[in-house]
Design brief:
Layout (H helix, E strand, L loop, with lengths): L2 E9 L4 H11 L11 E11 L3 H13 L4 E10 L6 E8 L1 H11 L17 E6 L3 H10 L4 E6 L1 E7 L5 E8 L23
């Protein structure tokens, strides 16, 4: 069956997702139209295609243990000079993203892997483009604001054309209408097995 490249992320909803994708393309980032606007939970990871059912079962278990949480974006930052990236900052929801990505990459799970850099949730708006264009992205989106309630995450697969396509969405098991406890304790423990 071969291998496939998978990623797991939280989609940035409309109208913000399309707006940031268009802005990213406008800054000259040629990858923009192949990458839906997102917050990464699992970076591109090559796996055996035959492991797909096990991976989806694992992601379903992670989602079942989660509850909806507020996400808020505000302003820009950069990973330069370490990495050529300008991003929109997450000012609310980072702890939840950290909790999710740790469980998705659990050592005893099918997506166990080390990260090249420490996990830092963000929304990329420019990557690997000219410094002047990166500076423009940083300045022009400095006042960007967005907020929504995250109710789950999704599995994507990268095609041979380098375009990321949605494969499956995973909704959290907690009820969105219930009040959330203070962060980071907004996830309920998994139900005991019978």
């Amino acid at each position: 069956m071969g291998t496939v490249t998978l990623g797991v992320s939280i989609a940035v909803p409309e109208p913000y997702g399309s707006l940031l994708q268009q802005r990213r393309a406008g800054f000259g980032d040629s990858a923009a139209h192949g990458i839906p606007t997102h917050v990464t939970l699992l970076p591109p990871t090559e796996v055996d295609a035959a492991c797909r059912p096990e991976i989806e079962e694992h992601l379903a278990r992670v989602a079942a243990a989660g509850r909806s949480f507020p996400m808020r974006l505000s302003g820009t930052d950069t990973f330069r000079p370490l990495s050529p990236v300008v991003f929109v900052r997450i000012v609310e929801g980072s702890s939840a993203c950290g909790w999710l990505q740790e469980r998705i990459r659990a050592e005893d799970g099918p997506l166990a892997r080390d990260l090249r850099f420490p996990y830092h949730p963000h929304v990329t708006v420019a990557h690997g483009i000219a410094e002047e264009a990166m500076d423009r992205a940083y300045a022009e989106l400095a006042d960007f604001e967005a907020a929504w309630t995250v109710t789950g995450f999704a599995l994507y697969e990268q095609g041979e054309d380098c375009v990321w396509r949605l494969q499956r969405e995973f909704s959290f098991g907690g009820s969105a209408h219930l009040p959330l406890p203070p962060q980071p304790n907004f996830f309920r423990p998994p139900a005991p097995s019978l």
